[in-house]
Amino acid sequence: TVEPLEYYRRFLKENCRPDGRELGEFRTTTVNIGSITTADGSALVKLGNTTVICGVKAELAAPAADSANKGYIVPNVELPSLCAERFRSGPPGEEAQAASQFIADVIENSQMIVKEDLCIANGKLAWVLYCDIICLDYDGNLLDASVFALLAALKNVQLPLVTINEETGLSEVNLKQKNPLLIRKHPVATSFAVFDDTLLIVDPTAEEEDLATGTVTIVTDEEGRLCSVHKPGGSPLTGAKLQDCITRAITRHKEVKKLIDKVIKSITPK
Amino acid sequence: MAAVMAVESGQSRLRPFSCELGLLSRPDGRATFLQGVTPSVLAGLYGPVEAKISKELPDRAALEVLLRPKVGLPGVLERSREQLLRQTCEAVVLGALHPRTAITLVLQVLSDASLLSCCLNAACMALLDAGLPLAALFCGVTCALQPDGSVLLDPTARQEQEARAILTFAIGSSERKVLMATTKGSCSVEEMQQCLAAAQGAADTIFQFYRDSVRRRYCKS
Amino acid sequence: MPLDHRRLCGPEESQPPALWAAIAAEDEEDEECVGAAPRDPCALRPLFARAGLLSQAQGSAYVELGSGTKVLCAAWGPREAAEPGPGRLLCEFRRAPFAGHERGPAAPRPNGRREPAVRLGRLPAARLAVSALLLQDGGSALAAAISAAALALADAGVEMYDLAVGCALCRPPRPPPHGCCSRPSQSAAPPPAHLALLPALNQVSAVLGGGRGGPPEDWAQALRLGLDGCHRQYPVLRQSLLRATQRRDAQAEPA
């Protein structure tokens, strides 16, 4: 299209988008759990064309000196050159780093995993969960897909049983006996793009993100509490508009929770 | 030129803050923002100057924000804050008036507790000081939700640690709309709206302070 | 290793849990091997290939060997290159941190630049980019990546002499015959030989060998096995390319 913005405005005036969606409609969301067998937990999430894979690797380490009863969660988002033409190969760029920080904040704010749960022996041994989130196909709304992939992958994690031998003081790992992680909260992200400073559209594609004047991401948990309100600059919004976003985010949470419960149920053989 | 003022708003007080414009001599725009007693953030703005070909944008000025921590090298946290600050500034700078130029804003954190709101205020004052055409002003306000549910404006580092949630907003001067929002910890929807209202209330005092300090700067000469 | 400022960092040192369960792990691996061992050393693992699945890339392909090795590949081009000269093909091969049994170094290591299996002198001063990502390493990752890259380039509509097919060989611990093709080699050394073939022209485009040397007959036999493996994979790759084109046509028609 020669005038993409004008093209979009025509659609938005009629309350729909070029791909046939309504303004408040998400793209088809699919999730595939446990597809990477080398990881301790993994999930592939597709949001329309946007594809994100999250693999969790669990390792053992000594807890940090100032928090002896805590384990570690290390989330990192990668946008390799594979996922879109504009990303260069090499170390993560600004967008990937901002996304990593956002994911780390979501984990911390929502307390989806309490770091104390990851501690095996106080001051001696704790789990480190390396959560690597890689975008395979970038068609907008990276944050929603990443948060969803992270949640689904963590739900899939099975940690081997670790005991500390009283006599030798060494740890013993029983790879045959595995336990799932305790997920205390289920945060779900919902992103919006702001068009022409006023119109809010949900789940923007890459093209919509480029044309939009700002984005907002709301993360809620199952109790309807806000885990994150992330508005990185862009068009100013009134408090009422933010409230609209939050209301939509709470309904989205229910949809996603239903989907993830269904998928988890389908892979547990009982 | 220093200006100090103590402000009181509806629910709680903002700490006295002050700023100094024109402390550095080289940059086109400069500001030091102090919250409490110690200097917090030093800002220097360069531009609009000719942009590097790889960075130039055909329809507007390319804005770059560099955030330097007090010690060490900038990491992931700084990078994500740079993004927040840059996109907030982009929303107010009338960049279309200076196409194919570059504007660089450097923020040096001086205190241990680097409040994002301090950075925002310093950034806006630097933009003002440089005389760049702006669509609106913005200010940063931090609110802390205390364990008992009350809202505390502009918490100290210790209060921040005790708080249940910390919300930082950038409020624009036109209609007091929200330019930027970021949260730490979880809160209910009502609590968020409460904090937002408190922040919007405090914004007026900060804008008044902006006006006063700029006026004083130009009175002297 | 210097501290990486562009990633969130964990503790300075951490070990995979399997390290602490050395005895138990070996037992388990033995069991696994017993389950998987009956594979004929010359048999190929089932190959699954799909082309044209990424929306943002001009060409893309996904190759899966058995259910162990998964490689995704995207291709772009041709674009104008900054420097004049003959056309160039830039390759990148990354490994997801969770691809191996042990977590790789925090930075996915570029696994060496793959020699362009296919290239063309038709496009002067142009640049083609191929980038492959290894999602899960179950052995023969390089071979899978070669096939995927060729498929992605073809899917991008780049003129090529032929579709390159990769095949990896490894020598089992017992001396006599060369075990063939895409044997999962996670516990053993990496496959000491890789072979890329242009089947339609019947030309070998790349041979990469390593490990301890062997008598020439062994190498000759290995090459034959590898060539055979490549020829057998070729139809599957062609099929997937055909299917991708058909899908695209079907999508284009109603519009």
UniProtKB/TrEMBL annotation, chain A:
Q: Which residues form the Exoribonuclease phosphorolytic domain?
A: 25-160, 187-250
- Report the subcellular localization: Cytoplasm; Nucleus, Nucleolus
Q: Keywords in UniProt for this one? A: Acetylation, Cytoplasm, Exosome, Nucleus, RNA-binding, rRNA processing
A Gene Ontology BP annotation from the UniProt entry: U1 snRNA 3'-end processing
Q: Name one Pfam family in it.
A: RNase_PH
Matches recorded under CDD domains: RNase_PH_RRP43 (cd11369)
Keyword rRNA processing on this protein? yes
Query: What's a single GO MF annotation on this record?
Result: mRNA 3'-UTR AU-rich region binding
Which is a Gene Ontology cellular component entry for this protein? cytoplasmic exosome (RNase complex)
Asked if the record carries the keyword rRNA processing, the reply is yes
Query: What's this protein's family per the entry?
Result: Belongs to the RNase PH family.
Protein name according to UniProt? Exosome complex component RRP43
Automatic annotation (TrEMBL), chain B:
Q: Write out the GO cellular component annotations.
A: cytoplasmic exosome (RNase complex); nuclear exosome (RNase complex); nucleolus
Q: Keyword Endoplasmic reticulum on this protein?
A: no
SUPFAM superfamilies, sorted:
Ribonuclease PH domain 2-like (SSF55666), Ribosomal protein S5 domain 2-like (SSF54211)
Please provide the record's keywords in A-Z order.
Cytoplasm, DNA-binding, Exosome, Nucleus, Phosphoprotein, rRNA processing
* Residue ranges occupied by any Exoribonuclease phosphorolytic domain in the UniProt entry: 14-133, 137-200
Pfam families xref list: RNase_PH, RNase_PH_C
Compartments where found: Cytoplasm; Nucleus, Nucleolus
Picking any one GO biological process from the record gives:
rRNA catabolic process
How would you summarize the oligomeric state and partners of this protein?
Homodimer. Component of the RNA exosome core complex (Exo-9), composed of EXOSC1, EXOSC2, EXOSC3, EXOSC4, EXOSC5, EXOSC6, EXOSC7, EXOSC8 and EXOSC9; within the complex interacts with EXOSC3, EXOSC8, and EXOSC9. The catalytically inactive RNA exosome core complex (Exo-9) associates with the catalytic subunit EXOSC10/RRP6. Exo-9 may associate with DIS3 to form the nucleolar exosome complex, or DIS3L to form the cytoplasmic exosome complex.
Q: What is this protein called?
A: Exosome complex component RRP46
UniProtKB/TrEMBL annotation, chain C:
Q: Which UniProt keywords apply?
A: Cytoplasm, Exosome, Nucleus, RNA-binding, rRNA processing
Q: What would be an example GO MF term here? A: RNA binding
Q: Does the keyword Plastid apply?
A: no
**What Gene3D superfamilies is this protein classified in?**
GHMP Kinase, N-terminal domain
A GO BP entry: nuclear mRNA surveillance
Q: Where in the cell is it found?
A: Cytoplasm; Nucleus
Domain of life per record:
Eukaryota
Which residues are in the Exoribonuclease phosphorolytic domain? 44-159
Q: Does the keyword Nucleus apply?
A: yes
What are the transmembrane regions?
none
Q: What SUPFAM superfamilies does the record point to?
A: Ribonuclease PH domain 2-like (SSF55666), Ribosomal protein S5 domain 2-like (SSF54211)
Can you name a GO cellular component term? cytoplasmic exosome (RNase complex)
One Pfam family in the UniProt entry: RNase_PH
What PANTHER family is this protein classified in? EXOSOME COMPLEX COMPONENT, EXOSOME COMPLEX COMPONENT MTR3
Q: Which family does it belong to?
A: Belongs to the RNase PH family.
Q: What is this protein called?
A: Exosome component 6
Q: Which organism is it from?
A: Malurus cyaneus samueli
